[in-house]
């Protein structure tokens, strides 16, 4: 199938000066009338035909400057509409007919519950009307929506409501005008009977902005946290980047059927309910945090994405990497930066590193795609954010912020490239970033091999760093990257040592950023009285794999003494990784458990204990991360080894866990405050260990917590431990939860999810029955993710069951889902693309299933691209 290539980019031949849209929404069909003022772009050949994208549309009529066009005046294909001869300036009117109620792909105009809504990024607008549906065509939009007044009292689109009225047959209409030119992917429309939570925000310059959150009536009262998060995000962007909101109204609508998290449509964000609704009874602390982050993310897009947008979809990371980084900065400012950083790195390692090591590996700026929706990836988003963070590290905070401001001023109202951003940052920072640009073009995770030597007589310590990046599809050999390596040296007494490179004057810095630019480099530190322990990649200063041969004792030492919180966490994790991997290899060292036990006890005894950080440090490394450390992983063996270590740590520290559990569980009613959140997190971690002691009192503790909890965090923490068991008490709790929450979709998703992720050996069979459960629905992406996604990505030992049943079950459902929703089906196929990570018998079955999918008739481009690349 045809790939779109970056190298084929050509600027648009026509500009759309204005578009006037008219929607007549109905139960059977919806009519769309579009009136566009088009003009030939300067310097374009006067004979270039006009091409408009269009997909799954019924064309009813076409008028050029008021003249109806006959069937042989234009060419209609499955991809769009071409008019051979058009004047330099003209008006085009297009009438299309849609059936949103049949749109199960959830792209374009579709129905969710009782409402109409849209999703246009990346190429959904072409499923609404014929249009040059590409991000470098910016136009002014006026939108009129007409619908039944009773069913759809609320009619929304981008910009400001400028007019409204009644029409015949109990219908009404509202006209919206968006003063900001925008690409079609930012268009949005919503119609429904919705509850509105209103508030207002006064900007730094004193303008009043109306804030409005629209939800279905059943969800009224659960938007308070999102509203407060939005105000915090607006304030933060003013204070940090000097950016003020630019319309008089900011609207957010929550919909229950949504392919991703949320969408930054100009002035009218559309959100998955999951990232708007939050109340203590229904949402966990993690949900509250995610709502704040996603609300921030979409708000920050108003500048990084909307005011300055992408020239083409290859530049996607221009808006996404930068906006994820801004979202991360916001989350760091609202909470604990160290905890945030640890969670970011955990996600990068569990989602992006495996992608970079798979047949789906692609650069942050890909150079070809078949289906663009497949490139909204961990690489484009979160490795993209790591790349932005490296600019920040290399330039420093001040120059970085100035650079971003300058980029936004210089390119305001334009559709630009990653190169434009890089150039602006280089100029502002006064740095040559040519080599740094390789982060955008070379895929793969670089590996740093660090070796050291100490010359006691000269007091000289040398770090030698070799960088390598493995081959990735289409890129057999890599050029060296420009890598900021933040590091420090720790003395034997635990003190941070001053870092003076040979030839430098005395200095007091105890953390510094070494810049790697060659495949091999050495750094010589002077004035050291003893051999230090190096603390490397502090704050995770680059998205790389670090390889330095620490002893177990070094790791335990760094866990206690490193001044960098991230590095302390990392040292603890590496120690745990080693112990678990030795078990995987059948190596049982008596002292291993002791080392871990002492290290963990040390964390808990630390005087200034931060409960949130402690919870991160005491959590065992994820199974997916452990799998990455092995050439060929056996997920069942990894699960067994990890659970074995957990059970032993549970037993060895049982008294400590019980103390931690009772000391840190917040007393009194639920509150969303940092200390209470941290307390719940640490107490629930302790409960997780206690669930593995095998003592009846601990099993009962879990049951008690489930039944007594006044909030979803504690209730779900207990329920997920119960889902690992299969006794009567566990079953009773699961039944109770279902009974209590079966009418609240987001909570019912959790019920599915904990079972799909169960560590019980019968989990695979349970997933099979969940898929036949009457509440399971392949049409709803959240439900699909909570069963199929949670199982295939979050339950490696069950998914990789050696029978191959897990793979078969996944493939069967991908094929069924593909006929309904190709975007989500393609996402669900990604776990199979990682087949190379597993042992040979598993590889074989995974490939067979990929093959079976690839051979299915009438496969979507989305799934086709994932499975065919996986097999290449
Ligand atoms: N920009 C959207 C993602 C659209 C995905 C289209 N398949 C959400 C975001 O990144 O904020
Ligand atoms: Zn985004």
Give an overview in words:
- With 872 residues, the protein is α+β, with helices and mostly antiparallel strands.
- The chain contains 28 helices and 32 strands.
- Among the domains are: 133 residues, Orthogonal Bundle (Neutral Protease, domain 2); 96 residues, Sandwich (Immunoglobulin-like).
- Helix content is 41%, strand content 21%.
- α1 links the parallel β18 and β19.
- The chain is globular, with a radius of gyration of 28 Å.
- The two termini are 14 Å apart.
- The site of zinc ion (ZN) has 4 residues, from α3.
- Belongs to the peptidase M1 family.
- It comes from Alkalilimnicola ehrlichii (strain ATCC BAA-1101 / DSM 17681 / MLHE-1).
- InterPro entries: Aminopeptidase_N-like_N, Aminopeptidase_N-like_N_sf, PepN_Ig-like_sf, Peptidase_M1, Peptidase_M1_dom, Peptidase_M1_pepN, Peptidase_M1_pepN_C, Peptidase_M1_pepN_C_sf.
- The percent range for helix content is 40-55%
What's the CATH superfamily of the domain at 309-441, by name?
Neutral Protease Domain 2
CATH topology of the domain at 309-441: Neutral Protease, domain 2
Termini gap: 14 Å
User: What is the residue-averaged pLDDT?
Assistant: 98
Domain Peptidase M1 alanyl aminopeptidase Ig-like fold: 444-549
Keywords: Aminopeptidase, Hydrolase, Metal-binding, Metalloprotease, Protease, Zinc
Family: Belongs to the peptidase M1 family.
Enzyme class: hydrolase
